[in-house]
Write a structure and sequence with these properties.
The protein is mainly beta and 342 residues long. Helices cover 13% and strands 42% of the residues. It contains two helices and 26 strands. A four-stranded antiparallel beta sheet has the order 4-5-9-8, with no helix packed on it. A four-stranded antiparallel beta sheet has the order 13-12-15-16. A three-stranded mixed beta sheet has the order 3-2-7, with no helix packed on it. The radius of gyration is 33 Å and the shape is elongated. The termini are far apart.
Length: 342
């Protein structure tokens, strides 16, 4: 009887322990929502895949990040890639995941694909799609500027064009403003009109025109006083020949009046002054049968320019828009001056 009593006592104690464990497990808190914040700006076209280019943070209680990895491995990123990652979350003690539907997740910087719970819902694997690289650009590797003002740079994959600016000495202002090109070369000799040390900076424009790559600097060149004077005089002669005897017809109270226009120049560039003292800004202007484009500061632009979604080529010396011809770098522009792919 004594042994039987001991057995009953042991069974009773075991039952109490089991019940306590069940109560403890039953008391674990459910994680009903998950917040994930992602930054993936480090992923760029042409760059090797590195998970360190992706930063993931979570906000909320009861869980933390265990691991992050790409769903698809490979070499360098391509313009057609859509990066995807898997975020492994682990629940803390006394917590478990009950989430699995898309509405249970709040994700910034990515798009929810699916989620999986494992290990009695203590682990959660979330698959997330990151922004497509279609509007990303690969880095420009090299930029070279020679003493004749000819500049070349390496191609950026995914770019629709390039922005170029010429800097002198320690100035933070671009000489002649920022210019746009669709080629990987430019001649800026007409801007080397002052003694000093010059550097060219180039950055890529994304396919949608909304993003830019980092500025990449060229080697430095030094322009002497004699070279600067020569460049200035050559540019002066070309432009004066192109715009001699200009007359401009402008509306005046519904009637056209002939106004004599004049070109002016300083170390930054050329601008066109009307007889009333005003000057043309941020628009096209037809002068003596040729079209010119002036920026917001009133300076005439040259080279390739993206204006209202179309590319135009403005002669590097005179600034006039080329029409119905092939540009010096081999691209065709139609009768309106717009670039047309062939």
């Amino acid at each position: 009887m004594k042994n039987l009593g001991k057995k009953f006592a042991i069974l009773a104690i075991s039952g109490i322990i089991s019940l306590a464990a069940s109560v403890t497990a039953f008391a674990a808190s459910s994680i009903k929502s998950v917040k994930i914040n992602i930054k993936s700006d480090g992923i760029t076209v042409g760059k090797d895949r590195d998970i360190n280019d992706v930063t993931v943070n979570v906000s909320g209680s009861g869980y933390s990040i265990d691991e992050v990895d790409f769903m698809e491995m490979g070499t360098a990123w391509d313009i057609t890639d859509i990066p995807k990652i898997t975020v492994h979350l682990s629940s803390n003690d006394k917590y478990y995941f009950s989430v699995y539907r898309s509405e249970d997740f709040k994700i910034t910087g990515g798009k929810f694909i699916e989620a999986r719970r494992e290990n009695s819902s203590s682990d959660l694997y979330v698959d997330i799609e990151l922004p497509a690289l279609v509007n990303q650009v690969s880095p420009i590797e090299t930029v070279y500027l020679n003493n004749s003002g000819q500049a070349t740079w390496s191609e950026s994959k995914g770019s629709s064009g390039y922005q170029v600016k010429l800097m002198r000495d320690n100035s933070t202002s671009a000489i002649g403003g920022v210019q746009n090109f669709i080629t990987t070369s430019a001649n800026v000799k007409n801007l080397l009109t002052k003694t000093g040390t010059y550097t060219l900076k180039v950055r890529a424009i994304s396919g949608d025109g909304a993003k830019f790559g980092p500025w990449v600097s060229s080697n430095s060149i030094t322009v002497s006083q004699a070279e600067a004077a020569k460049n200035y005089n050559e540019g002066l002669n070309v432009n004066l020949q192109a715009v001699q005897n200009n007359t401009q017809t402008v509306p005046n109270n519904g009637q056209n009046t002939q106004l004599q226009g004049t070109w002016q120049r300083n170390n930054t560039g050329w601008w066109y002054v009307l007889s009333d003292g005003s000057y043309v800004t941020y628009t096209w202007k037809e002068i003596d049968g040729n079209w010119y484009y002036f920026n917001a500061d009133g300076y005439m632009l040259v080279g390739w320019q993206n204006i209202n979604g179309n590319w135009y080529y403005l002669d590097l010396n005179s600034g006039k828009m080329l029409v119905d011809t092939t540009t010096p770098d081999g691209y065709y522009v139609n009768s309106s001056g717009a670039y047309v792919a062939r």
